[in-house]
Amino acid sequence: MASSTSTRSAPELLDTDPRGDDAGRPSRLLAALPATLLLFALVVAVTQAWRWWHEVPTFHMDGAFQTASGLYRLADGQWPGRDFFPYLGIAPVLVLYPVFALLGGELTDTVFAARLVAVLTFEAVIGLLAVLVAGRRPLRALAWGAAAAALLVVVAELVAPGLWGAWNGLLGAAALPGNSLRPIRGFAPYLLAAVAYVLLRRGWTVRRAAVVGASAGVVAALWSNDYGPVSGGLLLAVVTYQVLRRGWVPRLPGLAALWGAAAVGYLVAGLVATAGHLPSLLAYNFSDVRNDQFWYFGPWTEPFRVFSVGDLLRIMADELSLYPLALLAGVAVHALVRRGLGSLLVTYLGTATFLGGLIGTVGGHVADYFWAFALWGYAVTAVGAVRLAALALGRLPALRTPGTALRLTGAAATVAVLAVAGTAAVQDARHRGGLFAADPRFGYDAGLGGYLDAAFVPQVQAAREREAPVVEEYLGLSGVVDGPPSASVDSVIAALGRQREAFGARLADRPGLVVTTAPGTNEWVTWNLSANWWFYRDLFQGYAPVPASPLTLGWTPAEPATWAEVPCRTEGSEVVVEAPTAGLYEVALRYRGPGQGARAFTMVRNDINVAVDADGYVALDPGAREQRFPVAVRDPGSGTTVLATRDVPGDGGPLTTLESCTASSITYPEGADTAALYGRLLAPPPPAEGG
Fold first, then answer.
1. From what superkingdom does this record's organism come (predicted)?
2. How far is Cα 505 from Cα 502, in angstroms, rounded to an integer?
């Protein structure tokens, strides 16, 4: 009986036009057109990856090394949650692994895998939206959507590079891996929507409900924090709503299978992927990361934070997301009236991407986290416009029943355009490899799988000659050559919460080589030095640095210097340091802040941190009782330096009570060039704009 009812209800699930294709047998070219379109999309993804496959990445603060870290650890047999904590989530790295391993597992292979999958996810996003909006001929809609996305990538890469940064960098965020695999992280709801569409468009059964639920549970457990739980949980809610609203049967057994399979999928996938250490991974993601990300990462000032609905709307306007918000409301109303699966899944995708952006923005700061929501909104608009145009043209008498000749002409023109674009993409990728081969500034490094800038050869050679492990501030070339470390995280910025102490313990053993970012690399070095002084203070006191590459310093152990104490006191909301001479000082400040996990924090002036909007201030951990940080005294004046504080947000009473402090004058080991290398920290700050 249940099976019979399910069969009768199947047409209600289809958000489609019941009419078939136009009469007449299409030619082989017309029948093969969807396959041709999909082949073009695949070729573009491969050539885009191939184009960037030739060069060995060297910027260790880039996302290539963050991606490589997880892939190398998986190849080494390490387990997430047990041996390391993947900051990007398990699945976004895991989906890259087959390509990475198939190519040989070198550093450039991580670049190829990330570029390939990023473009494929972008093409799949547009293709799936075309399927859901068009409502009929799903294979054809998927192929046209994917090919259109691929053609846009070719145009941006070869004809109009400005497209990557247009519309607030939307195309770049959607099709390039960037620093954190955003396109792959944002693909979670689309993957689940595809599963739901394929399974439920033909009917509702207990077995199909279980598969949909299990898929939601797996994605919730393994995907990134911003999109995994939201995508999985929201799909369960949407399907449950549709079952109750449409009266799908079997109702209770189906819903029990849906939610039960989701719970089982979450636990099984999480426990298997972490070798039974799922609780450890959850503690890192939802305790260590959550409690630190709001105050630790910049920008820090109020315009870049959400403290009210008005703040949220202003940020969404800046990120071109207000129109998608209005569109989501309209699509939701349409889904309620139409009650079809396709329109409901379009609403689900809009809501999931909105919530993903909301989590990142509210939980942290402004960083274009609404890119996926903006992409959804403008892609739905574009696909919808094409659909309406096609319907309008179909009403014209001359085009209502087009002959085979006209259809063949259109198909042939399409294939010709794609052939030209595909050929150009292949030739460009091949040509780029030839440029590196002919450039004397680069040499091929078989161990890294590509052409390496000659300026970084000494760093790589030194790492290969060393037998002792290397500690790196960020995983970079030395760490790649050295092999996956045993620490749970690979960079100081991922050492959040309890992992900060564990990472710092690596210096307690006095490693023979520590690699950090060269001071002149960018302004974020000043933030790193200020916020991660717990890591740097041992280096400044007991190591000697030398340039290891244009972007890095290599620190080796030296006889530790003795730091002389200087008077320090707190006066209300200020710290007063008796600094008799210009130089660097360390302040250990004891205070009582708003508490761990608070959505507010205090910053104290140290005249070092000039990253983005820091303006010489460093944030204090709101849940700590003491924090050490360096201070640059450029002009000691009468010998008294006053360090002001400021609260974020600053519209209430004092957030933090300063209790006491101690301070020391920072000196360096004998013979160390630390002062010369970091002398820019004591240079006068640049004049204010317009000053």
1. Bacteria
2. 5
Are 574 and 522 in a shared domain? no
Tell whether the torsion through CA atoms of 181, 185, 187 and 191 is positive or negative: positive
327: domain range?
Answer: 305-400
Residues 283-307: tens digit of each pLDDT: 999 999 999 999 999 999 999 999 9
The number of domains in the chain is 4
The DSSP element (H or E) to which 648 belongs, if any, is strand 645-648
**CA–CA gap between residue 499 and residue 505 (Å, rounded):** 10
Mean of pLDDT values over 430-452? 95
Beta-carbon-side half-sphere exposure of residue 670 (alpha carbons within 13 Å): 2
Asked if 590 and 575 sit in the same domain, the reply is yes
Rounded distance between C-alpha atoms, residue 60 and residue 470, angstroms = 14
Structural domain contains residue 18: no
**204/274 same-domain check:** yes
- Stated as kind and residue range, the H or E segment containing 588 is strand 583-592
Mean pLDDT value across residues 548-574: 96
- Flag whether the pTM goes above 0.90: yes
Residues 544 and 466 in one domain: yes
Give domain status of residue 101, yes or no: no
Q: For 184-222, what is each residue's pLDDT tens digit?
A: 999 999 999 999 999 999 899 999 999 999 999 999 999
pLDDT of 469: 83
- Return the pLDDT at 687: 54
Last-in-domain residue among 400, 416, 431: 400
